[in-house]
Design a protein that fits this description.
The complex is a heterodimer of chains A (440) and B (120).
Chain A lengths: L3 E8 L7 H9 L4 E4 L6 H11 L9 H14 L3 E4 L6 H14 L5 E6 L25 E7 L3 H8 L5 E3 L5 H13 L6 H14 L27 E6 L4 E5 L9 H8 L9 E2 L4 E13 L2 E10 L4 E21 L3 H16 L6 E6 L17 E10 L2 H12 L1 H4 L5 E19 L6 E6 L1
Parallel strand pairs in A: 1-2, 2-3, 3-6, 4-6
Antiparallel strand pairs in A: 1-7, 4-16, 5-12, 7-8, 8-11, 9-10, 10-11, 12-14, 12-15, 13-14
Chain B lengths: L3 E9 H4 E2 L2 E4 L2 E8 L5 H7 L2 H7 L8 E6 L4 E6 L21 H4 L3 E9 L4
Antiparallel strand pairs in B: 1-7, 2-4, 3-4, 4-6, 5-6
Classes of the chains: A alpha+beta (440), B alpha+beta (120).
Chain lengths: 440, 120
Amino acid sequence: MKNKIRIGCGAGFSGDRLEPAIILVEQGELDYLVLECLAERTIALAQKRKLQDSSRGYDILLERRIRSLLPALKKNKVRLITNMGAANPIAAAKKIIEIAKESDLEISVAAVTGDDVFDRIDPQQKALETNAALSSSGKLISANAYLGVDAILPALQTNADIIITGRVADPSLFLAPMVHEFSWSLDDYDLLGKGTVIGHLLECAGQITGGYFADPGKKDVPGMSQLGHPFADVFADGSAMISKIAGTGGVINLQTAKEQLLYEVVDPYEYYTPDVIADFTTVHLKETGKDSVAITGGSGKEKPSTFKVSVGYHAFYLGEGEISYAGSNAMGRAKLAGSIIGERLKEPFPDMQIDYIGSTSLHHTSLKDAPEPYEIRLRVAAKSDSFEKAAIVGDEVEALYTNGPAGGGGVRKYVNEVIGIVSTLIRKEEVRCSITLFQS
Amino acid sequence: MFNNIISVVKIKLYDIAHSRAGDKGNTLILSLIPYKEEDFPLLCQQVTVDKVKKHLKEIARGDIVRYELPAISSLLFVCQQALTGGVTTSLSLDTHGKSLSYALLEMEIEYTDSVDQKNI
């Protein structure tokens, strides 16, 4: 049994940069690479692609990421764990095998399935957020349970080089190799809590290496155009050291680690995953060198007997239009434009929002006395039940060119289908996970 | 005879602390981390739930809970009904409320500066 493993995180969301993962695999002496690419809504969108074509429904960057990583993964014997399977882990595994065959690489891929519980969800079941029936939110598209380490472990016990999943709790992607390599018991909640903390620190990739952190003059980060992604040396006692590859951009220090430790944590005493309820309040962080932070502490208690299920539904079509004004009285002209739109669209679009970008669009107010900006951008957004009607919003903003205030320019208009997400719970016994192995 | 000059100045949280915003549904999560760990007691004393509620009144419509994390000298504010309906269905430009960390950092607090006259 090993006493230490090294896990890298090469992507923290579906649109993340490609090359930090390649650098990690080529130079990081990793045991495992994790790519976390599945946000709440991503899976509902993937489900829609799968309905149109049953050979699709996996992450849209899967092919590019795998193609760029496969040779180095194989050469350096790094195992990949990723949720890029999205709505279709089986199709994703087949695609990976196809790519491996093109390059004459011998690999084995394990697809983890069982998270898709759409056929076991009662539309009359209540949503946790609204306390109303799921179906009252809109037409349901997808329902995926957040699986934990026990779904991934059987795949790790095979010889699979790549483990591809759908919806799995993000920290579980990291906790699974720890449990596997250190033979941690699935009811040792203290160790599972510690491992979950490490997974949580790694799961957003660049967010612990200086990404989403920099503030020039206050929090300076060198080399952000070549930001390195993190890896952790995890020890069998549940402690870890987080670092990055020498020569890459970014920084890891107490500040970046603290920001990431608390990121998206609703209750630091009780951080729920399918594996454990982790306690973040006892975590200690220590800078141990340049770009190196040691993590100790953290604990946990028994996990819930249910899985959280994220349910995607068709919410509405979002129509948007934007136009800019600059120079003297820019704000006055933008506000006139806003009031014209308000008058014309108020009745057909009761759910409408008018923002002044450059002034109050982000915080809904201005929290300090700011001089009037030199330029201001009007943004109109409204909900609609059809694509065609939503398009009227942008068309009306565009019509301000010849019918609105002086000097308006730079119109852009958009229509997007909006997928909403609500949550519910499912008993663990109702979820059947399995793995399917593919060889090239 | 004075040995010390004590001056009370108003400063922005931005001057002494940093923050990252996160989201869960319609809940906004804001960390508040002092650059110097010795400023942690000051933040605990000055950045109360009531003051944050008042400061973010246009943003956070529901309850706010404050967690103290002395092990990492940081505070965490969990604000309900703060993301105009929630990430997935909000009409706002910044649906996640990612920019709201800098709304918290605009808050002003009183900072006591003790200057030893010998050093002047």
